[in-house]
Amino acid sequence: MNITYISVSDVKKISRLALSRLKREREQRGWTQSELAERIGTTQINVSRWENGVTTPSPYYRQRLGELFGKSIQELGLIPESSEERTAEITTFSDTPDLHISTPPPPIWNVPYRRNPLFTGREDILIHLYTILRSSKA
Question: What's the whole-model pTM score?
Answer without folding.
Answer: 0.48
